[in-house]
Amino acid sequence: MSNAPKLSIVLMSPDMEKLHAGALMGSVAAASGMEVNFFVTMEALRMFLKETVEKQDFKVSGVGEKLLEKKVDLFYKMLEDAKDLGNLKVYACSLVVDVMGWEKEDMLDLIDDIIGVTAFFGIAEGSQIMVI
Amino acid sequence: MAEVHIDKTVDTRGSYCPGPLMELIKTVKAASVGQVIEVLSSDQGSAKDIPEWVKKVGHELVLNEKAQDGDYWKIAVKKVK
Asked: Which fold has domain B8-78?
């Protein structure tokens, strides 16, 4: 797999539409044979808390409302499913986790690890990085 | 067009992008080499997206047509490796 093309995606915004777009592109890339690594930071990480997902407490506007209304698979479901189809990892930003006092158990099980930027740059080396 | 032998049909009508593609990928992974998988999709992007995926991963597109009796596409892929 080390020779597979790589894509790295930084999720920063908590907006449902941005999370959805990022998760969609990443999951299709992984299912098409790319190595995909997500780094979830700032307020985007709040959307990966079990509590947020249980309460469906998302930040939505036009398209997001339709996604909910039409019961489209949301970002976390797409990422979970993509893990079964390809090489896709999701990392939580250690700064945010520390500052907010969250634990790994507070976050969805799809989060693979809590790492810092240096570790992520190592993982992302040689790939393009998309920031959303 | 000659009759295409279909081993398995995945009906994803009503599912949005990239649902049909992801269902197809899942089914192709589980299939044996040589089998033909057909996906039914009402998502407009599928007719363009699925052939692109097929080309990228090296399978064979054996059918891509709009169904006569409805607003959906029938796309069939032969697993070649």
From this structure: Translation Initiation Factor IF3 (3.30.110)
